[in-house]
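Render this sequence as a predicted structure.
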Amino acid sequence: MTAASDIPEHGWIAGLPQPFKAWARLSRLDRPIGTWLLLFPCWWGLALVGSAEAWLYGAMAIGALVMRGAGCTVNDIVDRDFDRLVARTATRPLPAGEIGLAGALVWLGLQLLVGLAILLSLGVTAIGFGVASLVLVVSYPFMKRITWWPQAVLGLAFNWGALLAPSAVLGPALLDDLLPVLLLYAGGIAWTLGYDTIYAHQDKEDDARIGVKSTARRLGDRSRGWISGFYAVAILAWGAALVSAGLHPVGLLVLAAAAGLFAHQVRTVAFDDPASCGAAFRANTRIGWLVLAAFAVGAAL
């Protein structure tokens, strides 16, 4: 069984004039879950170091939007031949022929320019972290060709904001006490390993047919146990980050609520049902809000 295909003109995209629909879909603007999953580690990092600067939260939101779009564009450029062979991705703008390679490259450049403008406003230390992240953004699409664990590389990339955002607040002083943000980052990586393994189960039959690797294929029937472990590591790492940063331990109670949602997700997801996997994947926005609340409450008390 395969997942439902990416439907052209999905949601609010249908109201856009041509040819903007295709560009928006190339950046997955009609599918905000990816932007949220990239943004939450940034906001967690700000909350962890006690920042209440609204402009920073806004800058991170815009940055996550355009850099998620840039990452999707890179991914679709690299995977355009694979995407033609997978039911869920065959209608994306590049494999469907709505956008050519040259147009996709121009669109990528425009998104990166917006991301650069935001990055330049964040200070020298944050700029260094931002430039370093490009290695992960560019390399991730190739990982499914060479390793069974591309989700680990995605975790490194998608949670980079846990390092970058605090550096925008603290500057070089961040390097004097890296333990809390490193624990935050590690928890995010484990989280991504869990939710993206669920996501990858949507495509496992097509992936096996065309030779694409993933943790879903590697772990197979053992996925439920492994995902439980990934989520447990995430909760423990986030709790350790909260404690090591000196935040009020009441935040741990909020993390306990997130642990409960993780348990429900793992218990109820049906790995052979793409709709169930998609719903479980999208449910991770609730996890993101709870973790943000844990750090915000812990910093406020």
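Summary. The chain is about 70% helix and 0% strand. Residues 162 and 185 are 6 Å apart (CA to CA).
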